[in-house]
Amino acid sequence: MALRKLLDRVAPHFHPGGKYAKYYALYEAIDTILYSPATVTRTGSHVRDGIDLKRVMITVWLAAFPAMFYGMYNLGFQANTALAAGAELAGWRAWLIGTLAGHDPGSIWDCLWYGAVYFVPIYLVTFVVGGFWEVVFATVRGHEINEGFFVTSILFALICPPAVPLWMVALGISFGVVIGKEIFGGTGKNFLNPALTGRAFLFFAYPAAMSGDAVWTAVDGFTGATALAVAAADGMAAVQAHLTWLDAFVGR
Question: Residue 220: what are its φ and ψ, rounded to 5°?
C-alpha cells in the first residue's frame, strides 16, 4: 500500500499543469501495470468487469511463455546435440553457458540454460528498444503507452534466429514499431503487424543472417539442412529416413 500512496502523491505532478506533465504516459504505464485503473464506466449500457485492456494484453503475453520456454529448450537440445557430434562453441556465450551448465542434450537444465543464454539477450534488446519507441511516441502525442507492445516484443523475439546479432534485433524492432505501427498513428490505426514487419525487414535487408541452414542451430560453423531442403534435394524418402512424425511435431 505504501507504493500506492506514493503513486497517488506524485500523480498531480504528471497531470496537465504539473511539473512533469510531458512524462504522463510513462507514469500512467507504471501505475496501470501495477494497479488496475480507478476509472470505471458508470452507465448501464456497459458491461462492468475488473479486466481492462492492459490485463488482457499481459495475459496474451503470458500465454506465449510456454512456447518461449520450449523454444529455449529445443534450441539448447539442437545445439548440444551438434556439440556432441563435434561442433564447437566460442565467445562470451560459451563462457556463460559453461559457468552454470554443461552440454548434455539429455539434460533439461543444460538445454534450457543454453537456449536462455541466446534468447534472453534478444528479448531484452527487443523490449528495451521497442519500449523506448513506444514511450517516445506516446510522450510526443500525449497518449497513454499501449500495452500491446508486450505481445509484439515476445512475438518478434520468438521469430528471430537465435544467433542473430543484437544490433539487428534493435534495428528490426525499431523498424517494426516505427514504420509498421507508429507512422500510421499507433495501435488501432496500423494495418501491419509490427513484429512481422520487423522480421520481414530483416529478412530482405540481411538475408544471410535470417535464413539458410546455418542460422537456426546456435553453434559456430554448424550447418544442418532443414526438412524442406532435404526433401527438395533427395525426396521425401530421405526425410522419412531420419525424421519421424513426432520429431516434426515437437521440432526436434
Answer: -60, 125
Comparing C-alpha atoms, which of 146, 124, 152, 134 is closest to residue 61?
152
Angle ∠(8,13,17) on CA atoms, nearest 5: 130
Q: Which three cell numbers stand for residue 41?
A: 464506466
What tens-digit pLDDT sequence spans the chain (252 residues)?
677 777 777 777 777 778 777 777 777 777 776 776 666 666 665 666 667 677 788 888 899 999 999 999 988 888 888 887 777 777 788 888 888 888 888 899 999 999 999 999 999 999 999 989 988 888 887 777 777 888 899 999 999 988 889 999 999 999 999 998 888 887 777 788 899 999 999 999 998 888 766 666 666 544 556 666 667 766 777 767 767 777 767 666
Residue 103 neighbours by CB distance under 10 Å = 21
Q: Cβ(68)–Cβ(119) under 8 Å?
A: yes
